[in-house]
Structures
1.
Amino acid sequence: MSRNAESTAFRSALEVIRAVEPRVADAIGAELTDQRESLKLIASENYASPATLLAMGNWFSDKYAEGTVGRRFYAGCQNVDTVEALAAEHARELFGAPHAYVQPHSGIDANLVAFWAVLADRVESPALKKAQVRQVNDLTEADWFALRRELGNQRMLGMSLDAGGHLTHGFRPNISGKMFDQRSYGTDPATGLIDYDRVAEAAREFKPLILVGGYSAYPRKVNFRILREIADSVGATFMVDMAHFAGLVAGKVFTGDFDPVPHAHIVTTTTHKSLRGPRGGMVLCQPELADQVDRGCPMVLGGPLPHVMAAKAVALAEARRPDFADYAQRIVDNAQALAEGLLSRGATLVTGGTDNHLVLIDVSGYELTGRQAEQALLDSGIVTNRNSVPQDPNGAWYTSGIRIGTPALTTRGLGAAEMDQTAELIHTVLTQTTAGANADGTPSKAKYNLDAGLADKVARHATDLLATYPLYPGIDLT
Ligand code: DSN
C-alpha cells in the first residue's frame, strides 16, 4: 500500500468519526502521538500493521456468526466463513498445526476454550459413554449432578506466578483457579531456570489432568519435548500457552524442542503480542481435540468477532512472509543486546539474561519496588510494566521487578545500538530514583523521588532515539 493510501484511509476514517463524536477522533489521534513519542517496552505489546488495523474497522463488526465455518446458527455468514477459514488456514500453515480455532477474543478466552475442550474430552465424553447417552441433556439428574462434580474436581499443574507463569493457569483470582485444584512448579532459586526434574516430581505426586507450559514473564526458552514426556508419564494432557512467544515460534526462532506445536496436545495464544496481529486469541490442537475446541462458542465464548478474525487473517498472512522470520530473530537479538547493556551497567536480571523477547530486571538492586521503578521510568518517557520476580518479597502489586520486551521497538526498526542506549536511559533513571516515605515517615513502596529535570532530559533522549524510526511512517494525520 502506498503511503498516500494509508494517510488517506486513516484521515478519512477520523473525519467520519469526528463528525459524530470529535472527542473520540481526538483521542485516537492523541494515542498515535503518544505511541509515536514513547519508548514502548511492554513485553506484551506491539504495533499491528495498517492493513491489520483497517481490516478491523468495518461492517464485519455487525455480523453474528455463532458456530463454525459452514455450520452457523445464523444465516448470511458466507463472508464470515471466508475470513474465518482464511485465518484458520494461515494459522495451520504458519505453525504446522493440524487444527486452528481463531474465534477466541483474547488469551484468557483461548485458555478457557482449551480447558473446556480437555474437560469435555477427558471427563464429559467418558461419562456420556458410560451412561450410554449422546449428550448432556440426555443424562439423568443424578448422572448430571455427578458429572458436574467430576468436572469441578480436576487438577492442573502450571508454572508459579512469581516464576513467570500466568494468572489464567489455575490461580485463585482467575476463574481457572476456581475451576481447578491447582499446584504450581517454580524455578531453581539459584539459577532462576525451570528445573525439569522438579516438574516431573510434582507431576508424579499431584497427577494433574492438565500440565500447562508457557509463561508471561520467564526470559528463557522452555523445552517442550521434556514437558510432554512428563505429561505422558502421568497421563496428563499437555497444554502450552504461547501467548508471549508465538511470534518467535512463527518466525522459526524457537524450533525443535522449543517449538510447542508438535509437542503439545493443545496450544493457546494471543494474536497481538510478538505475533503482531489484532488483539485476540487462538487455539491450535491435535485432531483428537478439534471437535471439542470448535465448540468454544457458545461453550465459553460470546459471538465471534468477524472483523477481528478478518484482521487475524491479514496479520497471519503477514507472518507467513519471509521477512517475518527476520523480524522474529531481531526481537531476540534486541532483547539480548538490551540485557547485555543493562548487565554491563550493573543491573540484576532474573536468570542473568534472556533467550526470548523479554528481560526481567530485579530492581531491588536499585533499592526500589517495581511500582516505584515503573512510575519513574514512565515519567521519563519509558513505558514498561512492573512484575513479580521469583520469591518476590513485595507481592504481586508492588513487586520487585520490571519486565521489558522488544517486540514493539523491533517493529519500529530499532537495533542493537539503540538497545544499548535504551539500557543507558533505564539505568540512569533507576540509579537516580530513590524510594519515598509515607506521611508518617515509614518507607513507602509506591512513592519515589526523581528529579523532574532529569526525567525530562531522559524523555527527550528517548524521543531523539525514536526520531530515526518513525512509527507508521506512511500515516500522516496532519
Ligand atoms: N497482559 C498480558 C501480559 O502482559 O503478559 C497477558 O496477561
2.
Amino acid sequence: MLVTHTQQELAEQIAEWRHHDEHIALVPTMGSLHAGHLSLVELAREHAERVIVSIFVNPTQFGEGEDFDNYPRSLERDKRRLKKTAADMIFAPDVDTLYPFGPDKATTVSVPGLTENFCGAARPGHFDGVTTVVARLFAIVQPDVAVFGQKDYQQQLVIRRMTEDLSLPISIITGETVRDDDGLALSSRNSYLSDEERAIAPTLYASLQSVGQKLQAGRREFVELEAAAIEQLNNAGFKVDYFAIRRALNLEVPDRDCDDLVVLVAAQLGPARLIDNIVVTI
Ligand code: PAF
C-alpha cells in the first residue's frame, strides 16, 4: 500500500492506473479509522480495481469552539489498519495542498436547502466545509466512485446533491453503519466518552429502533413520537439537539403515506456530540 502526501505523486500513480484502464474509488476520511471506515474500503473495492483512502482533518468543517484541535489523529495506526484492507493508497495531504490559498480564502462550494436543518443548523458552516473539501478531493483524484458512511446521513445526501448538481461523473455509494455489539454506531468521537457515558450511549440507537418499530406498526403521529424519544433521551443523560422523522429522500417532513422514512438523531453526551439514524422502509 502506497502512502503519499503530495498531489504530484498521487497524480503519477493515478495516471499509471488509468493507463491500465483501472477504475478508481475514493474513500474520504478524517482518519482515526475504525471498523466502519474499513468496511467502506471493502465496499469501495467491490466497485473499482483501485481504492484510495484520503486522510485529512479538514479545518473548514469545524466551527469555532468545536473539536478541531482535539480531533484524534493517528496516521501510523491508520496505516497499519489499512494495510490489512483492500486499500491501494493513502492520500494524506497537508492543509496547503488542499487549500493552496489558505482555508480562509478558499473557493467555497455550498449546497443550499438540504444543509439548512439538523447538523447544518447546529453547526453553521459545517456542510460548506464538507462540500468544499470533498469537491477538492474529487477534483484532485477524479474517482469513478466515492464511498461515504450512512451514519452521516445528511452528509451523504448533501454530497449526492452536490455531485448531481455539478454533473460530476462520480457514483456516490453509501455504506451501512457499523455498530458495536451493544448497538452504538462506531465513531471516532466515541473515544471522548467516559466509561459511564459509554454505558449510556447505546440508548441512542435503542431509541431509534423503538421509533422504527412503532412506525412499522403503523403509528404516524410523528411529532408525538419525536417528543417522547427526546424526553427519554434527555432523561437518560443526553442533551438532544434533534430527533426527527423525515422523508429518506430529501429530509422533508413526511406525510402519513410516505413509505421511505429516516429517523435521525443528534445529541450531546458529555464531551461528545453523537449522531445516528435508521432508515425505515414501510
Ligand atoms: O465524514 C467525514 O469524515 C468527513 O466529513 C469527510 C467526508 C471526510 C470530509 O472531511
